[in-house]
Specification:
Blueprint (H helix, E strand, L loop, with lengths): L11 H4 L23 H16 L4 H10 L12 H9 L2 H12 L12 E7 L3 H8 L5 H4 L3 E6 L4 E7 L5 E11 L4 E5 L7 E8 L8 E8 L9 H20 L4
Antiparallel strand pairs: 1-7, 2-3, 3-4, 4-5, 5-6, 6-7
Helix pairs in contact: 3-5
Bound molecules: iron/sulfur cluster.
Iron/sulfur cluster binds next to helix 2 and helix 3.
């Protein structure tokens, strides 16, 4: 049991970090072990959870929370229950170091392009899924509102899309694929500073393949008062999940 007396007061700002958690759409089974799980299966599941934590913008807040309330189970802030136990045994200095890092997080530790973000989990092998998603020809299959895409010179890609009011727009963008990091990044010249990235994280465990797909988007053009941009990202990751799991199973 967590130490309830240590829980922060129910003030929104104290818990706000959870709104940005990379694991919000991840199956809790990745972070908490099933009964009697031991050995390689436990190590594989812990490693998968840590890979999600590694790209989480609130990893320090989460780890600090778990230490403060002495969460007895699960991976929190990239730390297993055993690792947290060891940190707590190291004494208050470990907690103070973690708290200080949380308060003084440098700019470069901020999440990439944090303006808009959406994430989902997919029952698919990460390498095969990334190969599918990074193929330019497949972009219209999952990018909301994109109707066509084809490669140009170098890292250029030409896209066609339909706006919410039905207007057809065409444009050129740069499109970089980092196969080692399983990350796609794209953007276009001109006003709006439009940039985005998509990352596939391997969260497969001993019981089967699994991937987390996270999409970030930055633009200064749209204040998104009506949620259009965030809605588009949510639709994109939902399309990835549906497309891959229902129509193009990748294992
Ligand atoms: S650090 Fe890990 S467990 Fe904590 S919120 Fe982020 S992804 Fe979830």
């Amino acid at each position: 049991m967590a130490e309830l007396r240590r829980l922060p007061a129910p003030v929104t700002t104290v818990w706000d970090w959870q709104m940005h958690a990379a694991c919000r759409e991840t199956d809790a089974g990745v972070f908490f072990h099933p009964a009697r799980e031991r050995g390689p299966a436990a190590a594989a599941r812990d490693a998968a959870a840590k890979r999600v934590c590694a790209v989480c913008p609130v990893i320090e807040e989460c780890g600090l929370h778990a230490l403060l309330v002495q969460e007895p189970y699960g991976v929190w802030g990239g730390l297993t229950a055993g690792e947290r136990h060891d940190l707590l045994r190291a004494g208050p200095s470990a907690l103070r170091r973690l708290a200080a890092r949380t308060r003084t997080r440098p700019e470069e530790c901020a999440p990439p392009m944090a303006d808009f973000r959406a994430s989902t989990t997919v029952n698919a092998d990460a390498a095969a899924l990334f190969a599918f998603l990074s193929d330019v020809r497949n972009l219209p299959r999952y990018f909301s509102r994109m109707t066509a895409a084809r490669s140009g010179d170098g890292n250029e890609v030409h896209t066609e899309a339909e706006t919410p009011d039905g207007t057809r727009v065409e444009g050129d963008a740069w499109f970089d694929v980092d196969r080692d990091a399983r990350r796609i990044a794209w953007g276009s010249e001109g006003p709006g500073d439009y940039r985005g990235s998509l990352e596939v994280t391997d969260i497969g465990t001993g019981s089967g393949p699994g991937s987390q797909v996270t999409v970030w988007l930055h633009t200064t053009r749209v204040p998104d008062h009506d949620g259009t941009v965030q809605g588009g990202l949510d639709a994109t990751v939902a399309a990835v999940r549906q497309l891959v799991e229902e129509h193009y199973p990748i294992t």
